[in-house]
Each structure stands twice: as structure tokens, then as C-alpha cells.
Design brief:
Elements (H helix, E strand, L loop, with lengths): L7 E4 L2 E4 L1 E3 L2 E8 L23 E2 L15 H4 L13 E7 L4 H5 L2 E7 L17 H7 L2 E5 L4 H5 L10 H16 L5 E11 L1 H11 L9 E5 L10 H14 L8 H7 L2 H15 L22 H6 L7 E7 L4 H4 L3 H4 L3 H9 L5 H9 L5 H27 L4 E6 L18 H4 L17 H20 L27 E4 L1
Parallel strand pairs: 2-5, 7-8, 7-9, 9-10, 10-11, 11-12, 12-13
Antiparallel strand pairs: 1-2, 3-4, 4-6, 6-8
Helix pairs in contact: 3-17, 7-9, 13-14, 13-15, 14-15
Length: 493
């Protein structure tokens, strides 16, 4: 990498010129695949054409097509910035040093995927700016876009349309492995991570026979492992209904017709389908990665049992009150009776009714019992099960629970889903109107610096930074979820 005020780096497609920000070289909007437009819409990611001139990489590329996030009331609003053309890009932050000997040493790399229920989000948003995280551990940070919603997870396998968003993520990992040395990164020291849908994806990328060998460490933030990869029959039915909503049923060339539909119309039809499928207590999107498709050869439980994560170091965690983000503003949840809430949980796990009765016996309202239990079922149980397996096998594993609650919390969100994101990236000021963060204090900023440093140091060394983090130990039967060493879970308050 050329060290200038406007740093230049080489990629397989051509040279890119970034910007220098507080000692960190930032390269934004770097293509890792061709634009998914025309005949490449609903196609597997293809290499980006080469360019001859120096390409400006000072600004992120557009988001992939999407509607507003269902969590805007929690995280804050975003101004729409999507464009299908030019959307498959990534962003790279890499430290610069005056010491040439230090600069010559390749740095560990974090590839981080955003969440958003496989329906929204962008790696280019300032929420996920990697500058502070890169500086905290002297690492290279990469964020990326991948196709979501119907453009990423429509399931028409007979037409070669399946798990396209997952294939995009695999293409990101491949691109980084081939190109990151030009940005000062070490392709032999890759951590793959993400939050929510991105965490779900990271686990499968680490387990895949194709991409897994490239991954040394894994970070999983609020991974919804209670949502197993989508069943192919269900995915096929949702695809059929989606095509029907678009009025394309019976078309002689369904794929050609889908490629001709304006993106706005695809998003509108997807929103209508989501409304038709919505049920109280069910947070699954209409379309998400399908089991057996590309990148998802087996359920995560089988992958863990088969040793697909053996040898990999893991940092994983959840927030204390995950489900308030989904249930706190849903009047259907507030209106549930005990019997109705109990039935929802009983339909999700075998011991759901028993677990419901245990918590309800303390006099909590049905909505609060449901919120606590679904937090466990969707997020915490799977996270602890994976941590238990890895720790019992002797692999370095670290687990946290994020407990921070804003001092002004009128919606009673507590430490809700996504609440740790401003702290992980140490980007507090990019969330000016976020209910989940509230009004930042000095203590808020100190926690952000501490958490970001812990995460970055894990990427660099396989161990979080400060002495308060202990390696996770499995097998504490007293834990509320039935597994996990509660004394070794790091609580971030």
C-alpha cells in the first residue's frame, strides 16, 4: 500500500485511492463483484470488470435495494441510499505507521457482516465505520454489502436462484483472501464476524467446507440460532406466493420477467408478503438462507457436532433484552393473554410451556414472559450451546452478555437487540437519535472504548484485551438457559 495523504492500494481489478483519517487509511466502495443488474440480477456473483484508471475509494457504494428496517424505532432512521447498480462493494480500514518496520508486518483481518433480518442494512453506513475498531487493535477491518430480501434470498433452485446473498458473502471472503495483502492485511489471519443475520452468516461461513479453511476466528453478536436455516419446502412456497403477488404466475420465462421488474416493485411485493406471513411472536423474515443450498450444507447443530469449528477461536454474545426491539412496539404482543403467549412458546421449543410457567409463576405480564423466553430461545440458547461445545473441546471461547441500558429509556427497551453496535465499533456519535443508545454519558463512551478494544484485540490475538474477560467454561447446570458457565460470561454494563 502506498503511504500518501490519499493512500493507494492494488486490487486484482485495478488500483484504488482512499483517504487518510486520524492515522487510518479508509478505502470505501471497493467492488468485490460485478453489479447485479440486467442478466446478473438473480445470478451468482461474478468478477468485477477490470479498470485502467485510478479508482476513487473515498465514499461507500450504495446500499443494496431494501425497504426501511423494521427496527428503525429502536436504532434510528436512515435516509434511503440504495441503488442496485454498483451495490456489491466492501469497505476497508487499515492503520498507517510512520515506522516502516511496523508497516511491513501484515495485520490480522476482521470481515464483518451487518444484520437486518436478511432484509435491510449496509456495510457502508457510518454506524459500522471501522476506523476506531481498526485503531483499537492495530487490525484491518472490512465491512461489506450482500444481497438481501427477494434479490438475495428468493428460492427458485430450478433456475439457479438460491442463497444468492450467502454466495455474495462467500465472494467477499474469497476477495479478501486474494487481495487484502495489498491493504496491509494477513490472509492467514482472518476473523469473520457479524451481528444478528450477519452473525448467523458468519457461523456458516466458518463451517463451510469451501470458506471455512480461510477462517481462523469467529465473532457472533446476537446470532438468531433459534431460526434454523429455512426449510426448502417453506422457501419454495414463499417464492411461489411472491411470484404470484407480482402477477408473474404462469409466465413462460419467470426469470426473465423477474429481471425486468423494477426493484421498487420487488420490494413492494416483498413487503406485502411479509405482512401476509406475519404472526405474533414470529420474527423470521419471509426469505432467508435455505438449508441445503449454497453455503448452507447442514444445520449449525450438525456442523458443530461434526467438528466444523474445531480449532477456531470464538467470541460470542447476546444483549440482555434482545426481543424488546421486536415486541416492544407491537400491540399484538401487549394484547396477548397468558394462554396465547404460552402457546407461542410451546410451539417454538419442546419445553416451551414448562419454561413459560416457571417465569409466569413470578407474576410477570404475558408480554414480559414472552419477551424473556423468546430472547433465550432465538438468541441465547444457541449461542451458549455452541460455546459449551467449543469450550468442552478445549478451544478458546469467550462469551459476553451486553447489559447496558440507556439512562433515558421511556420505551423500556433495556439492553435491546442491536444495542451493542455503537459500542463494538465505538461509533457513539453516529446514533444521534437512537432510543437504544439514549443520551451518551462519559461512562457510555468509556464502555464503547473498552468493548471495541476487547473485540479488536480478540481479532489480533484470539483473546479480548482486559483481564475481566475469562475463558468460557461449559457445563453450569444452574444457568437460566440450561447450559453455559454463567461465572465466565463477561457482563458489559
Amino acid at each position: 500500500m502506498n503511504m500518501l495523504n490519499r493512500p493507494i492500494a492494488d486490487t486484482e481489478s485495478g488500483n484504488v485511492q482512499g483517504v487518510l483519517e486520524d492515522g487510518i487509511a479508509a478505502f470505501r466502495g471497493v467492488p468485490y463483484a460485478a453489479s447485479p443488474v440486467g442478466d446478473l440480477r438473480f445470478a451468482a456473483p461474478q468478477p468485477h470488470p477490470k479498470w485502467m484508471e485510478l479508482r476513487d475509494a473515498s465514499r461507500p457504494g450504495p446500499s443494496v435495494p431494501q425497504s426501511a428496517s423494521r427496527l428503525e424505532a429502536v436504532m434510528g432512521r436512515r435516509t434511503p441510499d440504495w441503488d442496485e447498480d454498483g451495490s456489491l462493494t466492501l469497505n476497508i480500514w487499515t492503520p498507517q505507521h510512520a515506522d516502516k518496520a511496523s508497516e511491513a508486518r501484515p495485520r490480522p483481518v476482521l470481515i464483518w457482516f451487518h444484520g437486518g433480518g436478511f432484509s435491510s442494512g449496509s456495510g457502508g453506513w457510518d454506524w459500522y465505520d471501522g476506523r476506531n475498531l481498526a485503531a483499537a487493535g492495530d487490525i484491518v477491518v472490512v465491512t461489506a454489502n450482500y444481497r438481501i430480501g427477494p434479490l438475495g434470498y428468493l428460492y427458485l433452485p430450478e433456475l439457479g436462484v438460491e442463497n444468492l446473498g450467502t454466495q455474495d458473502q462467500g465472494a467477499v471472503l474469497d476477495w479478501v483472501a486474494r487481495n487484502i495483502a495489498g491493504f496491509g492485511g494477513d490472509p492467514e489471519q482472518i476473523t469473520v464476524g457479524g451481528q444478528s443475520a450477519g452473525a448467523f452468516s458468519s457461523l456458516y461461513l466458518a463451517a463451510s467446507p469451501t470458506t471455512g479453511p480461510m477462517v481462523k476466528r469467529v465473532i457472533m453478536q446476537s446470532a438468531p440460532f433459534g431460526l434454523v436455516a429455512q426449510d426448502p419446502d417453506e422457501a419454495a412456497e414463499h417464492a411461489r406466493r411472491f411470484v404470484d403477488v407480482l402477477g408473474l404466475t404462469g409466465s413462460l420465462d419467470v426469470l426473465g420477467a423477474l429481471r425486468a421488474v423494477p426493484a421498487e416493485q420487488l420490494l413492494s411485493a416483498y413487503g406485502r408478503l411479509a405482512g401476509e406471513l406475519s404472526r405474533p411472536g414470529d420474527v423470521a423474515p419471509p426469505m432467508y438462507p435455505v438449508l441445503g443450498g449454497p453455503g448452507m450444507p447442514a444445520a449449525w447443530e450438525q456442523a458443530v457436532a461434526d467438528g466444523r469449528f474445531d480449532g477456531k477461536q470464538i467470541l460470542a454474545g447476546t444483549t440482555k433484552n434482545e426481543m424488546t426491539a421486536f415486541f416492544g412496539f407491537d400491540p399484538r404482543i401487549s394484547a396477548l393473554s397468558d394462554d396465547q403467549a404460552r402457546a407461542i412458546v410451546a410451539g417454538q421449543v419442546a419445553d416451551g410451556a414448562e419454561r413459560y410457567d416457571r417465569i409466569a409463576s413470578h407474576g410477570a405480564a404475558p408480554r414480559d414472559v414472552l419477551t424473556e423466553l423468546v430472547t433465550e430461545i432465538v438468541f441465547r440458547d444457541g449461542t451458549l450451546a455452541i460455546a459449551d461445545h467449543q469450550a468442552a473441546a478445549g478451544f478458546d471461547t469467550y462469551v459476553y452478555e451486553f447489559d447496558y441500558t440507556p439512562i433515558d429509556d421511556p420505551a423500556h427497551l433495556g439492553s435491546t437487540h442491536c444495542a451493542e453496535l455503537p459500542f463494538f465499533f465505538n461509533t457513539i456519535d453516529t446514533y444521534p437519535d437512537s432510543p437504544m443508545l439514549g443520551r451518551p454519558t462519559t461512562a457510555t463512551r468509556e464502555l464503547a472504548a473498552k468493548f471495541s478494544r476487547a473485540a479488536a484485540t480478540f481479532v489480533a490475538t484470539g483473546r479480548p484485551a482486559d483481564s475481566d474477560w475469562r475463558r468460557y467454561e461449559s457445563g453450569d447446570p444452574g444457568d437460566s438457559g440450561g447450559s453455559g458457565g454463567s461465572s465466565t460470561v463477561r457482563h458489559l454494563i
